[in-house]
Amino acid sequence: MKNGIKNWVVSGLLLGGLLCFGVGASAQTKPVNPELASLEKPYHPEADAQKDIDSLVVLAGKEKKHIILQAGGNWCIWCLRFNKFIQENKTVNAYIKDNFLYYHVNWSPENKNEAVFDRYAKDKGKEYGYPFFIVLDSEGKVLSTRESGNLEDGKSYDETKVMTFLKESSAKAVNSK
């Protein structure tokens, strides 16, 4: 009888422990943001960003365009919202295609692209947050960096503000000065 009670107590403790650990594990799981999960993921942590940028500089020289580097990551809701905005807004999308080469530079725990950011925008991620933009001329020289917060409108971006930024950064505008 003592062994029977002892077995029940041990079994109860084990079962209780498993339930507690199971509840604790699920309580620690981060909930998935449905909006974040639904958006296209344009950043590629596995990419060799400097090699890609070097190729863009060659192409930019031939096409006489500037390059916009959008710094951020697939973890960043505002980075993904900006990508969605420039894909879906016909005016902005057409202007970018006509005037720029565009590249998403990854910053994430998997790949912080430290050499790239040190070269083009040292410590700007800390200063601006994400996303932020680096504008290069057709030779790969940094023309400007820009934070994105003042381009926001609600949970998206303001077309007029984005177009002003793009027009000020285009090769046509810079070369006419």
TrEMBL record:
Q: Which domain of life is it from?
A: Bacteria
Is Signal included in the keywords of this UniProt record? yes
Name assigned to this protein: Thioredoxin-like
Q: SUPFAM superfamilies of this UniProt entry?
A: Thioredoxin-like
Q: Which residues form the signal peptide?
A: 1-27
Q: Does the keyword Signal apply?
A: yes
State the UniProt keywords alphabetically: Signal
InterPro entries listed in its UniProt record: Thioredoxin-like_sf (IPR036249)
Q: One Pfam annotation, family name?
A: Thioredoxin_7
